[in-house]
UniProtKB/TrEMBL annotation:
PANTHER family: PROTEIN EVA-1 (PTHR46780). Residues 44-123 form the SUEL-type lectin domain. The chain crosses the membrane at residues 319-341. This is SUEL-type lectin domain-containing protein. GO terms for molecular function: carbohydrate binding. It comes from the Eukaryota. The keyword Transmembrane applies. Residues 1-23 form the signal peptide. Keywords: Membrane, Signal, Transmembrane, Transmembrane helix.
Amino acid sequence: MDYSYYGLWILCTSLWHLPQCISSFVNTKTVADETCILDTFSPRCPSSQRLFITSSHYGHMKLGKCVTVNTGHLGCMSDVTDIVRGRCNGKTRCQIAGSDDEVVRTQPCAQKIYTYLNTSYVCLPEEAQLESCSNFAAGRHWKYLVSTTIDQRCLHQSQSLEVTVQSSMDIEIIATMINDITTDVESVQVGISDIHGNSTVMDILGSSSHSVQQTFESSAVHIMFQHSKAILLFAFRAVGCEDLVAPEFTWIERKRRVITIGCIHNKYTWQVECIGSKWIGFRGNCTRQIELKPVEETINKEEANTEPKQPIFTKGIQYALTIGITVLLCVVVITTGFVCLRKAEYKAKASKDIKLQEMTGDYNTWKATLMRPVTNDLNNPNASPCSV
């Protein structure tokens, strides 16, 4: 069950970080554009990205869209990268006419030679502000810097770029070449040293489709590289878990991605592990143990000194008594009903006998009167012949 819980956490953390991982591997494909004398250079990037001009030249460079015939003057050109960068870098879109006055003033070719503007650019995530070379703070989300910015602000001042994150967290770095170099150098080497004295070299190949990613187990690193025509995009972010604040009555010992927590008043300890950016694992409570310990000891002593009480009736006897009482009540109810029924029958029979007796009594009296002897009347001189 615990492994399933950890697995679910890892899956959810991976899905949560997936958009950030995808956004770090930005599309750094270089776009080349020829702008003829009557055309307008109009680069455009998505709203979440910004323009970066890798190179821009004005002149009569080569056969292509604007120059279709070789007149023997190919190759004359001037570098106007700084002019175009000043107008386009950091924006989502810009416009520069092929006949722009500031660009045309750099005319490198002979009179009446047809010239045009050739510019290469990429769309990059918005670049972070580099205020100090000694403490460039990276957070959970990616921060981007272009090597030209680091070169101008730090390396020209003989300073390395120091990237820092919160204590006990690691630094993840991705370096990508965003322009295709055509020199004899096949790669650019970036030297990185951490606060533990370890040094590492990141070898970035001379291709805009190649990226190098590495995680350093250090809260601060120093970055150095040699000035060259290659332009690199660096991405920095903090990975791992932040330090835990020790709960009350506990001590904490951290070893990178594992923290051991223990109670001050006893030997009770537990561990949590850093998965993604969360500490996962069982968490104890030293305060609760301290408060409950005397109570538990008191209860145990009382239970030890008290003899177990025997119940008066066993469960079998209790069941038998319940069944017996139920049967007795049923017998009483049935007997009472039977007695009441018989009594009602007796009352009905007695009432019928009384009525029959009354009717029989009247008939016998009438018969005795009619059958009375005549002699009795003759012997009675006072009897009336008509009396009945």
